Backbone:
């Protein structure tokens, strides 16, 4: 039933208004655009074929578009996992971002026996969740729901910490794809092409002390200046790792 719902929604999602975005639409689309730039030609052709007229940038926000339809609430736990401060993640069954990414990558490797729409839905999930896993608060603390219950004032405007990291810092600073790509020479091929999802999670969680490094909940330029380099790096790594993953899955 869930697979059928995903297939039907892939067709109808353009008619559902966008409600909530992890990394924001801007961030996810930058990640997708970076990935597309580094796809092998044959892989790019395969991705284009399975997306069937949907751009990779549009595909990257599909999982957020469907949040407006409560029949797909079962997909919400796929966007994140929670590990309390000082604790270690323990692998378990159930819906979370690590398990879903593992499963969807395997399904895509077996794509030859699948329908066009089934592969398209899985591609949209994979593209989105690789981005989510690189946003530190998508692997944050359960006690504050990944920063959603932490109220802050950002440049005199009320918001919450999760939304701030999803979109508002990107919008305020005007980060571009080119800003992120300029960072590439700083990192090794080994770092960029790391394939262990648990290491991706650990790297994202390593930034949580910086995310929570404020005292009076009134955040402005100093907080932005300290954390924009993290956002740029995570967008870059997400895009490059997505490209590497897709190149591996669809290689001829």
Residues:
């Amino acid at each position: 039933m869930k697979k059928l719902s995903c297939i039907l929604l892939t067709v109808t999602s353009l008619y559902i208004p966008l409600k909530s975005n992890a990394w924001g639409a801007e961030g996810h689309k930058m990640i997708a655009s970076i990935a597309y730039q580094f796809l092998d030609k044959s892989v790019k052709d395969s991705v284009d074929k399975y997306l069937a007229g949907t751009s990779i940038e549009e595909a990257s926000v599909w999982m957020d578009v469907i949040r407006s339809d409560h029949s797909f609430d079962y997909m919400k736990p796929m966007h994140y996992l929670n590990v309390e401060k000082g604790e270690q993640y323990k692998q378990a069954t159930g819906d979370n971002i690590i398990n879903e990414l593992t499963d969807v990558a395997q399904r895509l490797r077996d794509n030859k026996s699948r329908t066009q729409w089934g592969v398209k839905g899985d591609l949209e999930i994979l593209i989105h969740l690789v981005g989510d896993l690189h946003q530190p608060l998508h692997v944050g603390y359960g006690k504050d729901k990944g920063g959603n219950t932490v109220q802050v004032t950002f440049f005199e405007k009320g918001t919450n910490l999760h939304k701030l990291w999803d979109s508002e810092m990107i919008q305020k600073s005007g980060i571009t794809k080119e800003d992120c790509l300029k960072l590439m020479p700083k990192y090794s091929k080994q770092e960029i092409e790391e394939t262990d999802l648990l290491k991706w999670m650990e790297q994202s969680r390593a930034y949580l002390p910086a995310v929570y490094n404020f005292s009076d909940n009134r955040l402005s330029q100093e907080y932005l200046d300290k954390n924009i380099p993290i956002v740029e790096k995570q967008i870059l790594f997400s895009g490059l790792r997505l490209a590497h993953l897709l190149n591996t899955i669809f290689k001829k």
Remarks:
- The chain has one domain: 1-15+22-80+92-252.
- The domain at 1-15+22-80+92-252 is CATH 1.10.575.10 (P1 Nuclease).
- Residues 221-250 form the longest helix (30 residues).
- The two ends are 32 Å apart (CA to CA).
